Amino acid sequence: MTWQYQNTAHDDSWVFRADYSRARIATASPPRGHFHVDGALRQPGVLGPKQALGRVHFPCRQPTLEAAVLLLADEFRVPTNAPQEVWRAAVAEHEARSARLFDR
Which residue, 35, 55, 64, 89, has most beta carbons within 10 Å? Predict the structure, then answer.
C-alpha cells in the first residue's frame, strides 16, 4: 500500500509518501511500514554525500489514511469539504478501528 501527498498532478512533485507491505519478513529492509519526506536537511553531513532525504526510509507502523487526513488538515492546511466538527469524529472512529486491526 502506498499513498502520497503531491504538489501537482506530476508524480515527481510528491511532498511526502508512506509505504506499507503486509508481508511479514523479520529482516525486511526497508521496514514494512516507512515514510519518505522530499526535502532538504538543514544540518550538513548527516547523510551520505549523494543520499537524498527523499530516499531515507523513516520506519513507522502502518501509516493509516486517517493519519494522513489529520496531517494534511492540521499541518499542511489542506481545506476540507466539511467542517472539522463533522469529519474529526469520523476520522477518530476509523483511526480507533484501524488500531484494533493492525495492533494484533
Answer: 64
3 CB-near residues (< 8 Å, 6+ apart): 17, 18, 63, 65, 68
Q: Are 72 and 24 contained in the same domain?
A: no
Q: Which residues of the chain have pLDDT under 70?
A: 25-28, 102-104
Question: Do 57 and 71 belong to one domain?
Answer: no
The distance in angstroms from the start CA to the end CA of the chain is 19
Q: What is the pLDDT of residue 38?
A: 92
The predicted model scores a pTM of 0.69
Q: How far is CA 44 from CA 28, 36, 48, in A?
A: 29, 19, 10
Q: What is the residue range of 78's domain?
A: 64-104
Check whether residue 53 and residue 78 sit in a common domain: no
Same domain, 37 and 18: yes
Quickly count: other Cβ atoms within 10 Å of residue 52's Cβ: 13
When divided into structural domains, the chain yields a total of 2
